[in-house]
Amino acid sequence: MRSAVQSVVVALALAISSVNGAATTTLPASKGAVATNAPIKVSGSFDGGMKKYDRSPAVCQGQSETGEKDAMFILEAGATLSNVIIGAGQAEGVHCKGTCTLNNVWWADVCEDAITLKQSSGTSYINGGGAFKASDKVVQFNGFGTVQIKDFFANDYGKLVRSCGNCKENGKARNVVISGVVAKSGGVLCGINTNYGDTCTITNSCQNSGKSCDRYTGNNSGAEPPKIGSGPDGKYCKATGFTSSC
């Protein structure tokens, strides 16, 4: 009969195995290159065939605030973007004007933010893919509703996803659902505003410094939101099968 200690060890090993096997952790080789001087607008579905897409001339200005015009892709409500690699010349990555789905989308070098979500409600999906060198956020969640991030890889980043802490439209809840994510050399997987009822649920994921969630008091005045806690609290931030062994 298996002892309690053995059962715990086996369960932990299975959890780590499932985490390490969930996300692809290397940038895929590109199958060509596309350069444009304006964002590519997508309604419906766009499959990039694993080509590398970039802006030329480059519009990246580091962490200086830019805007939608400096994105690589602008997705209309309900659009799906699949199988692309986004280069370093863009500034805003992907802007989703409503709910959107990203399948196997990669950022070779994030400039400001990789993904900006503007949906008023509903659920957006980020399936697979990954982002490198995001000195601030990978996902900027400015809209409302839910984002589900599954089997994603992040390396050298600030936060995987941040619920906007001081947007003037703030006042409703945002929900973040993370599963099968592997994140290395960066900060927390999610930052949320508990005063608005935001939630972050993490399952079977890894952050190699054990950083799961930061909790803030958000505002709509533009002021810097204060951090009020870190880690799972059982209400707003929950983590199951979360490990630092990536």
UniProtKB/TrEMBL annotation:
Which InterPro entries does this entry report, sorted A to Z? Pectate_lyase_PlyH/PlyE-like, Pectin_lyas_fold, Pectin_lyase_fold/virulence
Entry GO terms, CC: extracellular region
Task: Cite the Pfam families for this sequence.
Answer: Pectate_lyase
Is GTP-binding a UniProt keyword of this protein? Answer: no
Give, as one word, the top-level EC class.
lyase
Report the EC number(s), separated by commas if there are several.
4.2.2.2
Biological process, per Gene Ontology: pectin catabolic process
Cofactor requirements of the protein:
Ca(2+)
| Sorted UniProt keywords | Calcium, Lyase, Secreted, Signal
Tell me where the signal peptide lies: 1-21
Under which name does UniProt file this protein?
Answer: Pectate lyase
Family to which the UniProt record says this protein belongs? Belongs to the polysaccharide lyase 3 family.
Q: Which reaction does it catalyse?
A: Eliminative cleavage of (1->4)-alpha-D-galacturonan to give oligosaccharides with 4-deoxy-alpha-D-galact-4-enuronosyl groups at their non-reducing ends
MF terms in GO: pectate lyase activity
Looking at the keywords, is Metal-binding present? no
Q: Where in the cell is it found?
A: Secreted
What does this chain do?
Pectinolytic enzyme consist of four classes of enzymes: pectin lyase, polygalacturonase, pectin methylesterase and rhamnogalacturonase. Among pectinolytic enzymes, pectin lyase is the most important in depolymerization of pectin, since it cleaves internal glycosidic bonds of highly methylated pectins. Favors pectate, the anion, over pectin, the methyl ester.
